[in-house]
């Protein structure tokens, strides 16, 4: 059995956060806490959902090479901490919630990472989810939706794609992929 980097990706609003939260309830999968410069949403806790940093601090860490990958989405920086991943991988598998480009960047540094793209049942469902979570303004929702076609066009570069229609079904499919990948022998790329 090997410890894997299990990357859950997909367009904004597709349900990555919910899925990653459910997956990381099991001890075998530790959630990779990213750094971000965006403000915490209601209920979000520093050091649990994200490490919330000032832009100055984020840039300092980026220059120091602390991020495995980082990007700016919608005016805010987001980055995966190299040290966090390396330390956790020693004892467990790690699950990451990343945007599509970030996921592909992780694969470049860690070719053995397993990338899953969550797909919406359709674009309207995505829009409704973004509206109903009440965490973005109308303008922010439009920005996020404008990226969807581009993000979906990259799906062939992912190891797996899953349609997130019913949460329980998608979660079960993800667990099956995780078990299969974890039990795959090191170096076996079949
Ligand atoms: P949100 O603001 O909704 O929490 O996240 C916005 C987007 O940033 C989501 O697509 C999420 O997957 C992505 N994201 C979260 N953490 C990271 C990270 O460390 N690196 C990158 N590239 N994207 C991230």
Structure characterization notes:
- By secondary structure, this protein is α/β, with parallel strands linked by helices.
- It has one domain: Rossmann fold.
- It has eight helices and nine strands.
- It has helices at residues 16-23, 55-63, 82-89, 100-109, 123-132, 138-146, 148-152, 167-182; strands spanning 5-9, 29-31, 34-36, 50-52, 67-73, 76-81, 93-97, 114-119, 160-163.
- It has a five-stranded parallel β-sheet, with helices on both faces.
- A hairpin with a 2-residue loop joins β5 and β6.
- α1 packs across α8 (167-182).
- It is globular.
- The mean pLDDT is 92.
- The structure holds guanosine-5'-monophosphate (5GP).
- The site of guanosine-5'-monophosphate (5GP) has 14 residues, from β5 and β6.
Write the layout of secondary structure elements.
Blueprint: E1 5-9, H1 16-23, E2 29-31, E3 34-36, E4 50-52, H2 55-63, E5 67-73, E6 76-81, H3 82-89, E7 93-97, H4 100-109, E8 114-119, H5 123-132, H6 138-146, H7 148-152, E9 160-163, H8 167-182
Parallel strand pairs: 1-7, 1-8, 2-7, 3-4, 8-9
Antiparallel strand pairs: 3-6, 5-6
The site of guanosine-5'-monophosphate (5GP) has 14 residues, from β5 and β6.
Question: Top keywords for this entry?
Answer:
8 helices, about 190 residues, alpha/beta, binds guanosine-5'-monophosphate, Rossmann fold, 5-stranded parallel beta sheet, 9 strands
Q: Nutshell version of this structure?
A:
This protein has helices spanning 16-23, 55-63, 82-89, 100-109, 123-132, 138-146, 148-152, 167-182, and strands at residues 5-9, 29-31, 34-36, 50-52, 67-73, 76-81, 93-97, 114-119, 160-163. The protein is α/β, with parallel strands linked by helices and 190 residues long.
